[in-house]
Amino acid sequence: MTKSPTIVTVSFGANGAIADCPAFICPEGAEYELVEAIENHRVAGSNSGTVSLDIVHCDSGEAIAAGVTALATVFNLKATADTPLTRSTASGLSTTRSARVLQPGDRHDLDFQGTLTDLAGVCVTLVYVLRRQGVRR
Predict the structure, then answer these.
(1) Nearest to 50, CA basis, from 105, 109, 112
(2) SS3 assignment, position 69
(3) Is residue 63 packed enough to be buried (19+ CB in 10 Å), middle (13-18) or exposed (0-12)?
């Protein structure tokens, strides 16, 4: 029997509302693996430097800056607007399994990098498969 994926979507409107944040926290007794990440933005970033998004694996209590990337290549937020970018286990996610798999209390965070000038309408969808189901009390 195939299990349905768990899909998490995080959206941001205007530039001032875009900030690093947790996207998914693994519940007690479970184990989830990130199998796909999709990013889309309505207005591309325009800063002369890097404008990107990373998805990082953090242990409980760990700061986003200390997390380990779950992507092989970060999302370029200066890419063409309204053109979804996909990273999957076939191409674009980290080959390091521990960066993609969450244990209870671990989380995947969205880590925006660079000056987010003009960037707006960001939507990130994360697709997980349940690898181990725990017993909830």
Answers:
(1) 112
(2) strand
(3) exposed
Q: Distance between the two ends of the chain, CA-based, in angstroms? A: 25
- Mean pLDDT of the region 122-126: 97
d(CA 84, CA 72): 17
CA of residue 111 relative to chain centroid, distance: 8
Q: Quote the tokens at residue 112.
A: 């925006």
- Classify residue 104 by its DSSP letter: T
Helix (H) or strand (E) holding 10: strand 6-12
| Average pLDDT score, the chain | 92
pTM for the predicted model, two decimal places: 0.91
